[in-house]
Structures are given as C-alpha cells and as structure tokens.
Amino acid sequence: MDHSTFRDFSKAMADYIAEYLENIRDRRVLPSVQPGYLRPLIPNAAPETAEQWTDVMKDIERVIMPGVTHWHSPRFHAYYPTANSYPAIVADMLSDAIACIGFTWIASPACTELEDVMLDWLGKLLGLPKEFLACSGGKGGGVIQGSASEATLVALLGAKSKIMTEEKEKRSYADDYEIVKKLVAYTSGELALTILMEEQAHSSVQRAGLLGGVQFRMVPVDDKHRMQGAALKAAIKKDREAGLIPFYVVATLGTTSSCAFDNLAEIGPVCQEEKVWLHVDAAYAGSAFICPEYRYLMEGVEYADSFNFNPHKWLLVTFDCSAMWLKDPSWIVNAFNVDPLYLKHDLQGSVPDYRHWQIPLGRRFRSLKIWFVLRLYGAENLRAHIRKHISLAHEFEQMVVADSRFELAADVIMALVCFRLKGSNEDNELLLKMINGNGRIHLVPSKIGTTYFLRMAVCSRYTESQDIQESWKEVQAMADRLQAEKAKGN
Amino acid sequence: MDHSTFRDFSKAMADYIAEYLENIRDRRVLPSVQPGYLRPLIPNAAPETAEQWTDVMKDIERVIMPGVTHWHSPRFHAYYPTANSYPAIVADMLSDAIACIGFTWIASPACTELEDVMLDWLGKLLGLPKEFLACSGGKGGGVIQGSASEATLVALLGAKSKIMTEEKEKRSYADDYEIVKKLVAYTSGELALTILMEEQAHSSVQRAGLLGGVQFRMVPVDDKHRMQGAALKAAIKKDREAGLIPFYVVATLGTTSSCAFDNLAEIGPVCQEEKVWLHVDAAYAGSAFICPEYRYLMEGVEYADSFNFNPHKWLLVTFDCSAMWLKDPSWIVNAFNVDPLYLKHDLQGSVPDYRHWQIPLGRRFRSLKIWFVLRLYGAENLRAHIRKHISLAHEFEQMVVADSRFELAADVIMALVCFRLKGSNEDNELLLKMINGNGRIHLVPSKIGTTYFLRMAVCSRYTESQDIQESWKEVQAMADRLQAEKAKGN
C-alpha cells in the first residue's frame, strides 16, 4: 500500500469511526449471533493476491459489527469501563507509525523518557506519595504494564526476590524450594477454603499466585467485603506459628465484584510491622483519586511498596495502559535482569531500561496515549468525567431504592451499583437472563458469599442521565415480565 | 474532543505519518540525545485545562522525534525487524475505536472468532500440521499473545501442569514442591554453566524459567550453534539418572544472536520418546515459512506441542501480535482457569474463552491487524517481502566476503548477516562504537562463545539494494578510520 492510498484509507477509517461512535446509541448493545457465526462469512484461507481497501471497509459492517459487543454504548453496564477516546486513538496511530520497541533506553530514548515523565504526571494527579515518583530523585518510579494482572505478578516476583534474599541471609536452606514452599501471600476474600469464584479480589490475583508458584491466603472480610487490619494480622500470626513465611499482601481498592475497598489505613501499618511487601491494586477505582474528595479511600498508601491502577479503564487512555509505581524497583530489576549482549548499551544505568520492569521483552510506545489524553482533556475535564459517572451511579441507586421490589447489594462508592430483586438467587438469575437476552442493555452478575446480584457499571463516556433512566426502565420492564410469567406459572 | 475535531486531528496525523515514513531515509537513524533530554522540554505536571490538538502536533517534532531511534529507516539494522505497515495502522484505529476487551466470547464474539479464523489462515500460510489448526476439528488451535516471551512462559506453564498431573498419578509426593524442584527444562545454549549472556536462545527463555520457578538446562550446541538430538538426549539421560524430571524443551528456529536453527528433525523424536513437551520458538524466522523453500528449516514441527512466531516482527503486522498454536490447549486452559462469576456466560465451552490461554486477563481486538494485512498485501506480496529481505542480506554477505579484512561469524540463512573484522574482539567493539556514534546506520553486537561480532539485520520494508550498499560503505569507512587511528597510535 503506497502513501497516498494510506491517506485515503485512514481518512475513510476516521470517518467510519466517528460515524460509529456518534451513532453507537442506536446499536443493540449485545449481539445476537451464535458461536461460530463468523467463520462462514469469510474465505477459509488468506487471499493469494492483494484486495482493495474499499472491500475491506465494506466487510466491517458485514462480518465484524454483527458480532461486536458495544462496550462504548451508553447502555453497556457490564464489567468495568474500558477506555475509548479520540486523543488516545490518534496517539496510537503515531505509536504504530514510529513502531519502536522500547526495551532499552537506546532502542528509542523518547519511548523510555516520555513514559518516565508521564508516570510522574499521573502520580501527581492522583496525589501519590513522592517516594513513588521519579522526579523526587529517590529510587522510586513508574512503568506502564499491559494489565493489572501483570502488575500484580510483577510485584509478587519483586516481593519473592526480596524475601528469598532476606531469608538466605537469616539462615541456611537446602535449596530455594525449601523457602518457596513456605511463602504465603494474602488478599481479601472469604475464608481460606472458599472456592475461587467467591473471592473478593479480582481473579487475576489468584492467577499471579499460580504463576508465581506460591500459596495465596484469602483473608476473611468484614460485612462490607473489606479486608481489615486485625483479620490480616491474625492470618499472618497463624501462618508464622505454623512455620510459614508471610511475604506479600495485595490490598484491593475497588474490587471487581462489588467495588469494595480494603482498609488500607489499617493494612498498611500491619504490613510495615510484619515486614511484608504491600501491593495496592486500584485497577478501576484508582482513576477516581484524581479527584481529591475520593483520596480518603487510599489513606495508608504511603505504606505501599507498589501501587497500580489502569488508566485504560476509567481515565480515557485506550487499552493497554496499566500504570504501576514502585518505591524500590531494584528488587524487580534484579529478579528480571537477564541481559544478553545485543541488548547492552553504553548508557545503561542512568535511565530505566524498562525491559527489567516487566514480563515481556518487547514494549510499544504507550506513553504517547497518556500524553495526548492528559493534554487534550486537561485535568479538570478528566475530573468532570469521573464525577459525572459517579453521579450517574447515584442516580441509578436512587431509582433502585425507590422501587420496593429491589435492594442494594453493596454501598455505591464509585460508578458501580450492585443490586438485586429481593428474594431468591434464581429470580435474579432469570432477571439477568431476560435483560441480556433482550440485548438493549448489558449487565453481568456477581456473588458475595451466597448472595447473587446484578452489577450496573457506568462505562461509556457517552452515558447521560437519560440513558441511565432508560437502563433502569429496561430493568423494571424485565422485572415486570418476570413477575407476570411467575404469576402465570403458578 | 468532539467528532469533527477528531476527524481533523486524525487526518492531520495520517498526513504526518505518511510524511514521516516517506522521508524516513533522511533522518539520522540513531538519535544523539543524552539520557534525561526530554524532561526539561515539557512541563512537570499535566495541564489543568485542555490544550489544542495543533499544539500537541507541533510538539512531536520538538519533543519526541529528537529522541526516536528510527526502526523503520532503511539503514536500521539492529536487533530484528519490528513490523510497520499501513494496513496494520488502520486496523489498529478500528480496534481502538471498537475498544472491546475480548476476555470471553460474549464480551465480543467477533474478537474471539476472527482471532480463531485468522490463526487458521496464518497456520495454513506457514504450512503448519493440521493438528494445530482449529478448522481441522481436533483439539488444536491458535491464539495471539503479546510477545514470544509470553508464549514461552504460557507453554512452560502448560507443560508444568501436564507433568504435575502425570507425576501425581505415578507416585505420591509430600507436596507439589517435591515435584517442582525436580523439574528440568531445556534449551539450546553453551554448557550448562555458561553465563547467561552467552546462551544462544533468546533471553526471554531464561526469564520464563525464572517466572515459572523451574530449572533451565542449556544443552551444548554444535559448531553452528544448533541444538542437536544427541546432545539433548544425553542431557535428559543424565538428569534422569540424577533423579530429576525432564519436562519441557524449547527449540529455537532462528536465534536472536546469530539466527541459528536448532535441529528440530532430531529434537522432535527425542522429545516424543522422552515424553517431554516440545515448544518451538520461531519468533523471527517463522514468517519465512510462508515461502515453501524455507520450510525445510522446520522439519520435525509435527512433533511439537506448541509453536510460536511473531507476525509483529517480519510479517508486517504491528506490535503486539505473537501467534501461538497448541495441539492440546486444555493443559493451559486448566492451569489458568480461575473463573469468577462475572466472567461466566451461557455459551462457555463451544468456543474458546481466550482469557484461559494467556497470562493477562484483558486483550485487545488484535486479529483485525492480521486480517487487514493478509488481505491488503495478499500472500504473494508477503512472500516477496520475505524473499527480498533475504536476498538483500546475501548481497551484504557478498560484500563482506569480498573485503579481505572481514569474515562471516555465522551462516546467512535468513535476513541477518553476522560478521566481524578479522582480529580481536576489541577492534570489533571499537568499530561498532564508531558506526553507532556516527548514527548513519545502526547495528548491535552479539557474542558466541568468546567471539564478538556485529549483526546486520535487514529490517525496514523500505530497504533497497542501494541502502544495503551504503550501509556497507559506512562499515568500510569506519573500518578505514579505525585502521588509520590504530596506525597513528602505533
């Protein structure tokens, strides 16, 4: 494809995208296709000769769109938001065109340096302690990871590398496995024996344990599904008495299940006393800390060794962009440092070589997206975006409360409303099936303990008060239908 | 930013990109900035109010470009190529606009289904055995990973989960750690005690061992730096005799250091006899298998359990897009399956839920890039692209051979030429320093055993015969200068 064809093609795509997003409200949120719908729509092998871009453009509506779940529809309320913004799309075009792989400083200095500074910009916006910021001149600094799962895993490996070093200094072990088998990590959750799907923290925390090869302990939570200091303290004490080695705590600020906040102000001092690595996972809710009025929820963050949130969720920077800060990256850098000659360069040491801060070797120029979004929105508009979503959630909350058939399943703190029909889990499962089957709005369920509920997350930057009202009307209409069918059945 | 501003902004960016790539030959390949150059060029915090996009556009040349290493300059010859193509850039725009997170089928059916079919298209183009293809109706299938490092790690975890299951069936162990500490993985390399930077396989293989918590054994290589069947067999035998459990072999087709190919035709049967998981890492060279004349290099691939190559290296699909196939994904799916309620859906089981095939939970709609690139180039143009690069490498090879001061350090098989000044490593280190210091071309070094050499990879899709000749002239000019300086010094 030559330059002038690219100009035509990319401009046609820009028009298509603007058209798609401008009119996304008109599309059914959830597609009605069945598994396997796509394969028959396209050839079974790549073409031998080049096709025209205009033919590819035509296939977007024919092949792709029928199978798209429209995450940016104002009535998509499933999971959590994922970002979509014009500045980020354009930044990604530039990133794709420069297409450098920023594994070392010399491999593209701008890629490393803009990331270093953008993580400072973000950290300042959130009000993170200066120990996390590169500009403070200490050891701390930030890095972009692909996802919160990776950040949790990277922090776990740092904590593991630290405890292994410390234990070996303390006493002699036959081999590393003698230490590894005693290591215990902690996260919020039901009792230790609770099955995985009922745990409170995001499922990626479990996965990190699996990958890192250490045991994970679910710390019992309080009635608001939050880990408290005393419960953590007790769990650690019990494990130490059993000869185990507590080394890593993941505190979650805004769980996926119900957006519960672990009590960081209590957990922090416990971790400090017990000398265990504290990682704070604020994947979704972290974006809200750009608004000073929500920072009380991260009180105690000064005790954390690592902190992570996803601008690609709620801060309008497209996936993937998971921001992570470390007070002392050397534990991770040393654990990951496998340095072949072809990656060495003369200026090592004076700037971060980010390949040692992450699991993959390769990395894109992702900080461009942060730069474009922060400049083209400005902090005040980003704060307005967060506040609007939270306010829309409270609007929905009030409608739930006003309908006596329904109840809330958790406090509404951010832009997530957990609610349910008073009554059986089965009724709520049926209700959800009817709502999603209709496809006008999209919700997913969750469960805390034995209580099944529906989650209404405000996700799209196009969501307005009227959308929230229509979404609620749809819930009510399906509840009416459910009750009518049950009445008929009886 | 409203829709019409986006149209203006993205079109201006398309023009900038076309201009940048059209004239990339005129830019100095390697920047001359010093570490820390960028921070003083921009404010130390995000702006409070929104800026104009035109101001952001202006800052690209002022802030970013001075620090960019131009990977797509026709005279960039470092590392390996990373892809850059117009169809992929436009596909990414669409992916960013749809901005779905495809962790389950229902989260966006098109995202999962196009990936499933595109991995079949790619697998067919490469001539992979049908057991790897979803369309064959067996268990096999493909998935897009972020990088070859991740693919190696994912395969290791699958192999680990398989061997743990098998060992527990065979005899009883006190705990999992009793098994884990006996596990041994193998890859090509110098003797087991060789320091890490001298190993042949890509450094990501080491890292996977670190993350997966198992020992990695370097299998001694032959004089062409290839793992042979007998050496692997001997290493496995020795470990079994010591009571260890061999479970995973990574065969590399096209090492980063010198593009050596392990002898898969021999290694395959050894792995089958020894019942160890065989993972083939063809990150760079795999793209060449779209040309039938290079498939002899993957003879024995039918014995592999998993296979990986990076379309984002040499097949014009922008980063990140690492294609991985598994004959039996269930080992990985079962190892990774941590399934909270909010990710469950009614249609589970009939189609892949790719979150179980990878380390992160989130994933972008990356198959669009493969679809656009394969259709808009067509197989014949992609083959022409590969053949041209290899032919340019041979052109460079001939010039090296014709200059009696130089020698080749490895066979030229793909588009990489490993060469050196006859004489000391120190002279070659000086030569490289002068070449990169001049910044007109960019090379990185490597080392095999104690021999230091320079690597000239053909990377850019803009590279022509004339560029290769100029790159060689630059090497010669620096060699002349080195000799003159040495003569003066004496």
From TrEMBL, chains A, B:
Keywords: Catecholamine biosynthesis, Decarboxylase, Lyase, Pyridoxal phosphate. The modification N6-(pyridoxal phosphate)lysine is found at residue 313. It comes from Nesidiocoris tenuis. Its EC number is 4.1.1.28. The lineage of its organism: Eukaryota, Metazoa, Ecdysozoa, Arthropoda, Hexapoda. GO terms for cellular component: cytoplasm. Homodimer. This is Aromatic-L-amino-acid decarboxylase. PANTHER family: AROMATIC-L-AMINO-ACID DECARBOXYLASE (PTHR11999:SF167), GROUP II PYRIDOXAL-5-PHOSPHATE DECARBOXYLASE (PTHR11999).
